[in-house]
Structures are given as structure tokens and as C-alpha cells.
Amino acid sequence: MSAEPLEGRIARMEGINVQIADRLNGIDGRLDSLDRNLRSEIGNVRSELGGRIDSLDQSLRSEIGSLRSDMNSRFAQVDQKFMWVIGINVTSWTTVMLALIALLARH
Predict the structure, then answer these.
(1) Is residue 18's pLDDT more than 70?
(2) Of 34, 10, 33, 14, nearest to 22 (Cα)?
(3) pLDDT tens digits, residue range 35-91?
């Protein structure tokens, strides 16, 4: 056995336990601080990402609207040209029919 009295060893162990508790409390405090910082950074990233996604969404919607407008304009042009082709064909058919009727009426 050691020559140190039992009370001294117990007091030293209690001091060591207090030091361990202080160190653990310090570690716990740092972990809490890191947790708060991490949660804050995650919140900032979410906000920034949400803003960028909203901006991208608005840009895409704007581009889609522009494309729709262009397509509607081009389809209107195609419709107009189609009507011209139909008109020319009907006119040509009518002319041919009138010419045939005139030829048949002479005989």
C-alpha cells in the first residue's frame, strides 16, 4: 500500500473527476456551438439554393412563354400560307372547270 493517506487519494480522485467533468462540459459546449453553426450554415445554403431554384424557375417559365409565343406566331404564318395554297388550288380548279364547261357547251 501507498504511504499516502486514504483521504488524500480520495481528494485527488475527486479533483481528477472535477477536471474530467470540466473538460467534458467544455467539449459539450464546443459541440453545441458546432451544431448551431452547422445548422445555421445549412439554413443559409437552403435559402441560397431556394433562391437560385426560384430564379431558374422564373427564367425557364419566361423562356417557355417566349417559345410558345414564337410557335404561335409561326403556326399562324403556316396557316396563312396554307390558306393561300388552298385559294390558289380552288381558283385553278374553278378555271379548269369553267374552261371545260365552255368547251362542252360549244359542241
Answers:
(1) yes
(2) 14
(3) 999 999 999 999 999 999 999 999 999 999 999 999 999 999 999 999 999 999 999
Verdict on whether the full-model pTM lies above 0.85 = no
* Alpha helices, H only, the chain: 6-106
- Indicate the Cα dihedral angle 64, 69, 75, 78, nearest 10°: -130
Cell representation of residue 33? 456551438
Please state, in angstroms and rounded to a whole number, the distance separating the CA atoms of residues 92 and 89: 5
pLDDT for residue 4? 72
Residue 88: alpha-carbon gap to chain centroid: 50
3-state secondary structure 79-103: HHHHHHHHHHHHHHHHHHHHHHHHH
The grid coordinates of residue 72 equal 404561335
Rounded alpha-carbon distances, angstroms, from residue 56 to 35, 52, 53, 61, 93: 31, 6, 5, 8, 55
C-alpha cell at 40: 445555421
Which residue matches cell numbers 385559294? 87
